[in-house]
Amino acid sequence: MENILEVHNVTKKYRSKHALRGVSFNLNAGKITGLLGSNGSGKSTLMKIIAGLTQPTSGRVSIIGGAVGIDSKAVVSFMPDKPLTESWMNVKDALKFQSDFYPDFDQTKASRMLEFMKLRAQDKVKDLSKGMNERLQLTLALSRRASLYLLDEPIGGVDPVARTKILNALVEFYEEDSTILLSTHLVSDIERIFDDVIFIKEGEIVMHTAVEDIRLRQGKSIDELFREVYAEC
Ligand SMILES: Nc1ncnc2c1ncn2[C@@H]1O[C@H](COP(=O)(O)OP(=O)(O)OP(=O)(O)O)[C@@H](O)[C@H]1O
Asked: Is 3-229 in CATH node 3.40.50.460?
């Protein structure tokens, strides 16, 4: 199977602090992979490096065989943990902004997602609740016809009902052949959607495996294993 993403020995230091230490992994096309780790384990830093928003201190990332840059940004859709939209925008402006910027923006899919998310075109972004804002950010990210989606904490900080809505949207609007890397520390709510999981701890990958393997061979849920691995964090 083709590797969409290859991460080779990536290290990131913020002054003397290591956020990532020698991180290496590959992602195949057509899978949803959970990037799981407790607060401060390096998830956002890794996402930003893959998205091309920050440089690694050392190591290399390749996306569909090419280096991170203008070409990779055209095929990677990134939902950051902090909203990209401006407060003066309404929902329609935010969609227009995204479609002006990215030629792969699918207006039909965006309209379907808005309806599913119960977002209205005229709603002001600054007046949206946190959960509604996350729905908007996910709509913006998933409405692109990208090869790789990077979703950084798409369910962080919202209540369980809102989480379920966002997860249902992910399942509903996921295209079978696309690849998603989704970071979270809220494992129990979301583990049903993962094919594979990567556990990151203190900037190092401690496990990268198929969910089925954990469930069948180890007889555990991902949440149980997560609690074991991060017990002392
Ligand atoms: N711009 C920065 N300058 C200095 N240190 C940083 C910076 N960004 C992140 N760090 C540090 O790097 C480490 C990893 O942070 P990162 O945000 O990648 O973790 P995370 O797993 O996404 O955390 P969370 O789940 O809390 O969002 C943390 O110790 C953090 O304090």
From this structure: no
